[in-house]
Fold this sequence. Notes:
Layout: H1 4-35, E1 52-54, E2 57-59, H2 66-82, H3 93-144, H4 149-163, H5 182-197, H6 201-209, H7 211-221, E3 222-227, E4 232-234, E5 239-240, E6 242-255, E7 265-267, E8 272-273, E9 282-283, E10 286-300, H8 303-307, H9 311-316
Antiparallel strand pairs: 1-2, 3-10, 4-10, 5-9, 6-7, 6-8, 6-10
Helix pairs in contact: 1-2, 1-3, 3-4, 5-7, 6-7
Amino acid sequence: LLSEVARLYLQVAFCFFGILWGAHLLSCMWFFVGTQTGVSDTGASWLDGAAVNVQGTPLGIFDAGVFYQYSVCLHWAVSQFSLGAIDIMPRNTMERFIFVGTTLVGFLFGSMLVSLLSAAMVDLQMTRKDRLDNVRTLRRYLSECNASPRLAVMVTKLVKQRLSVQDRLEEQDVPALKLLSHPLRLQLRYDTCKPFLRCHAIFRLWMNIDRFCMQRVCYEAVTAKTLRAKDELFGPGEPGVAAYVVCHGKMSYSTESFIASPDPMEVGPNDWISEAALWAEWVHVGKLDVVEESVVLVVKAQLLPKMMRNTAIRVTA
């Protein structure tokens, strides 16, 4: 994901190239209108006034090169967007109507462009101000708590790093989803969870038996959780209240033993973790650390049996 500064630069670049593309089309149209002598009610066009004096000799625009002709038209077109000064004026009624229309459109477009860029810069400044306030408050708290300098540096560095990354959107962060009907929300949750739940044979079987029951299970007993690097999903000795399936990202599972500590096990997409918590009382004997930003589906162990209302599904469970 792009940072706020990168998005601002990208927005400015898009506006710049959009202006150039619009000016290119407008300059081509302006040159075409100037060459159409049949639409002139005065017998003259703007091309007649585009001549330049070269050592006392007038040089018509058609006597110049193609690049000069294009640059003259492009200069006129860009001036319509920016309301700048130009040395080319219309010479007939058609050209004057086009001139008036492009001036009005350029005025509206320029005002809209300035407002959009101003709003983007103000939003960027407000975001930076919020981050500075958060870091300033954190440093004050660490100072009042007499935290050790080494720990304070570690905490501040981690907070700054996480503040610089945009949070991943979750379902509760999208207010528009509350406007959906209940059946449609069930279907949406089911479609987002289905690709990962199907990795497990029992869930794949349940989906084939009763899809509507599984929609209710996904809506009531399955939630998505976003984890950042260096987070810990669970630790040794904690009760297992849910099973987890990794949607994307990378994590590391390790166990602690008095005799020997085995090498950490890498956990990646479509891997299931703590599956036994769904079928029995479970206590974690290891810990799961997040290596890079990850998203996991949390299958709640307590709610899952209550959602199994289908007789065939209960038999398989």
